[in-house]
C-alpha cells in the first residue's frame, strides 16, 4: 500500500464496519478521520439481530435457490421475497446470485466465509477492552429451531456443510430443546444448539460506545456526506464532502449498502445490492429468553437485549428507494408470538434496514484496482456485526502493507 505522508486516513461510513476499521487504523498509529452523513451506527448497524457468530459459513444462495425465485416473487411476505417493481434493476445481481449457488461455488464460498469468520470474536477483544464494554458481549450460544421434520431434513445438507467447516453444534430432540430454552412454546420437533455464538446486549449502543472510544483515543468524526474524491496518478489525495475537502493519505470505503456509487467513482463497478430486513423491539415482551433463538425456515431471530426483545430478520430484495412494507414486520410479530405466546407490544418500535449484500455472500475487502491507497470494506450482508472487527484488522494490515495472515483473493473487489 502506497500511503501519502502526514495526512490522515479517511474512513467513509461510521457503521459497525467503518468504526472498527477506524479503531484498528488508530491502533496502528495513523491519524484517522471518520466521515458519515449521520451519527455513528444509524445506518444498518442500528437495528440488526445483535448476533456475533463465527459459524455463519452457509451463504444465502444455497444450491437450488434458482427454483425458489418464482415463489419469492409471488409472496411479498415470505422469508425471502423479491419486489416485482425492482426486478429489472436487480436482474444482474440475481444472475450472479444464482450462478453462485452451484454446489462447487457454495463450497468455495463457505471456505472463504469460514476463513474470515475464524477469529471474528477475538478481533473484537482489543476494541471492546479499549472502550470498556467487554461486558456488552454475552457468550450464551444460540439455538436454531425447526417446527417440522421436513424443514429440518431440508436443512440437513447445510448442517453437513457446517460440519465440513468444523462448526461446533449439537442436534437436540424436542425435549432437550425445551430444557435449553424453557420459554419456547412446545411446537418444535428439533433444535440445533451452537454453543460458540455470542450476542451483544444492544448492538446500537455497542457501535456508539466504540465510536466514542475512537474519539477518546484521538480520532476525529465529521458528520458530512461524501460526494467525491480528488484523484491523481499517486492515488486518492482528498475526500470531497458536500461542504468540505479532507486531504487524506489513504481512504477506506465502508459505507455499507451505499458504497456502490463511491466505489464506482474510484473506478470499480461492483454488483452490490441490498437485502432489506425488518425488526421489532418489544421493551415489555414478557418472554424470558436465556439465549437467542433462530429459525432457518422463517428467516428470523429473537434476541434478548438489555432494552427488550429484538425480533429481526427476513430478506426483501427491493433496493434502497422503495418504502418499507410494514406488513413484513407484522409477520415477524405473528411468528414470534407463536414461539412465545402473549408477547406484549406496549411501546414497541419497528425498523427496516439495508443489508449491504454481494451476490456471492462474500464481502469485498481489498484495495481498489485503480488506487492502491483506497481500500474497500463493504458487502457484509447478514454478517456485518460479526465480521466488523475482523475486517478492521484486515483493512489496517492492507493499509500498512502487512501480511493479513489469510489469502485475501476470495474477497477482492475485482473477482466479478
Ligand atoms: C434485520 C437485520 C438483522 C441483522 N442481523 C445481524 C446479526 O444478528 N448479526 C450480524 O452480524 N449482522 C446482522 N445484520 C447485518 C448487519 O447489520 C450489517 O451487515 C451491518 O450493519 C453493515 O454494517 P456497515 O457498517 O457495513 O453498514 P451501515 O451500518 O449501514 O453503515 C454505513 C454508513 O455509511 C454511511 N454513508 C453511506 N453513504 C455515505 C456517504 N456518501 N457519505 C457519508 N456517509 C455515508 C451511512 O450513513 C451509514 O452510517 C442484520 C441486518 C438486518 C437488516
Describe the structure.
- The protein has 416 residues and is an alpha/beta fold.
- It has a domain of 187 residues: D-Amino Acid Oxidase, subunit A, domain 2 (D-Amino Acid Oxidase, Chain A, domain 2, 2-Layer Sandwich), CATH 3.30.9.
- Helices cover 32% and strands 25% of the residues.
- The chain contains eleven helices and 21 strands.
- Strands 4, 6, 7, 8, 15, 16, 17, 18 and 19 form a nine-stranded mixed β-sheet that branches. Strands 10-2-1-14-21-20 form a six-stranded mixed β-sheet, sandwiched between helices. The chain has a three-stranded antiparallel β-sheet with strand order 3-9-5.
- A hairpin with a 2-residue loop joins β17 and β18.
- The longest helix has 17 residues.
- It is globular and about 65 Å long.
- 50% of the residues are buried.
- The mean pLDDT is 96.
- Bound molecules: flavin-adenine dinucleotide.
Question: What order do the helices and strands come in, and which of them pair?
Answer:
Elements: E1 9-12, H1 16-27, E2 32-36, E3 51-52, H2 69-74, E4 80-82, H3 87-99, H4 103-117, H5 120-131, E5 137-138, E6 142-146, H6 149-164, E7 170-173, H7 174-180, E8 190-194, E9 198-200, H8 203-216, E10 220-223, E11 226-232, E12 235-241, E13 245-247, E14 250-253, H9 259-265, E15 273-282, E16 293-295, E17 300-305, E18 308-317, H10 327-339, E19 349-357, E20 364-367, E21 374-378, H11 384-400
Parallel strand pairs: 1-2, 1-14, 2-10, 4-18, 6-16, 14-21
Antiparallel strand pairs: 3-9, 5-9, 6-8, 7-8, 11-12, 12-13, 15-18, 15-19, 16-17, 17-18, 20-21
Bound molecules: flavin-adenine dinucleotide (FAD).
Flavin-adenine dinucleotide (FAD) binds next to helix 1, strand 2, strand 15, strand 18 and strand 19.
